[in-house]
Specification:
The structure is a homodimer of 202-residue chains.
Chain A: H1 2-18, E1 23-24, H2 26-32, H3 37-45, E2 51-52, E3 56-58, H4 59-70, E4 76-81, H5 85-92, H6 94-98, E5 101-107, E6 117-118, E7 121-124, H7 129-135, E8 140-143, H8 147-160, E9 164-167, E10 180-183, H9 186-200
Parallel strand pairs in A: 4-5, 4-8, 5-7, 8-9, 9-10
Antiparallel strand pairs in A: 1-3, 2-3, 6-7
Helix pairs in contact in A: 1-4, 2-3, 7-8
């Protein structure tokens, strides 16, 4: 939850930097982006050293510190497993690169896709996964495959040595404790929405 | 959170139905899908009427009831605003249709896209949004535009009369209390992942 707030602050500061601003107070930041003022003050107090009494925070210094904490000041190497609709959308999603996630390999088990090229990357067969992870020093696996094969793909990624998995398949997968798992399940988001709509129309 | 669990149960039951099973106990369901057994028992007890002592739950009846509660037993009409990489991926994402979300209109303000056809739907200019929402009886707006214009698009959707917004833009948007807002921010998911990787490597 705190990570989520750091993400939001980081994005707000990027916006302010683009707008050419140099400093901002926590109160001003909260007002501008409709955030909870007391919460922002409390969160940013943690970065007290970057605040200047009466003026506020130096925007670029604070942002750089947030990015360091969020780990987005460095490059993470990613293998994308599954190059269907969702996989290719993710591949072209500029937000990945912007946050230092570089797709270094694409894997798909469809023989029609293997060997094809996507922006200079050759799509590899699943059997090549371990070699690609090692050769490209890949830390993160993105799972964009159908639900039925999500667990077996996750298992292969773990065996190949990734440290984190971002799972887009609408399926629960299990990973060992030392591998970080993040699920982005659109089905659940959709059902959450339709649940509230359905309740509201009763 | 409970909605999330209902979503998961609904998906598990769909899987069991596909596998040809007729009944299942809460204990068996938990074991099969690596869920918390006590939690499943407690959650499903709410649907007591569908349980048969000593046998368990009738899978298709329980699933139909969950789908009704989740609101995915009916059709929700959706307008997709933004037909870039993410928008077109969402348009082709089969999960939408599977859960009763039917994209009834596409809107984009890029003159190069307006008038083009996507699977039989003509891409409309932003100015046509109010008319499309009314004519197509659209309840949900999907925002897949850049962060800078997310709020203005959300405002236009609200003014046009949608009851819910699914926001994929990496920006916070504000909507009136009576409009349901669901954010799916990939940037935040990515930062959550890189945060934990960065912490782990210290």
């Amino acid at each position: 939850m705190t990570v989520r707030r750091l993400s939001v602050y980081s994005r707000c500061l990027a916006q302010l930097e683009e707008d050419g601003m140099k400093t901002i107070s926590s109160h001003e930041l909260a007002a501008r982006f409709h955030l909870n003022s007391a919460q922002v003050r409390k969160d940013l107090a943690y970065f007290g050293e970057f605040g200047i009494r009466g003026i506020g925070y130096d925007i670029s210094t604070l942002r750089a510190e947030l990015q360091r904490i969020l780990g987005v000041d460095r490059e993470w190497r990613v293998v994308l497993v599954g190059f269907g609709n969702l996989g290719s959308a993710l591949f072209h999603y500029r937000g990945f690169a912007r946050q230092g996630f570089r797709i270094a390999a694409i894997v798909d088990d469809d023989p029609a896709k293997v060997g094809r090229s996507a922006s200079g990357l050759t799509i590899l067969p699943l059997a090549e996964l371990p070699r690609a992870v090692k050769a490209q020093e890949i830390q993160i696996g993105v799972v964009a495959v159908p639900a039925e094969v999500a667990q077996s793909v996750a298992d292969r990624l773990v065996a190949a040595g990734v440290r984190a998995i971002l799972n887009f398949a609408p399926a629960r997968v299990k990973v060992p404790r030392d591998v970080r798992l993040q699920n982005v399940d659109l089905s659940i988001e959709l059902e959450n929405l339709s649940f509230h709509l359905a309740q509201g129309s009763r």
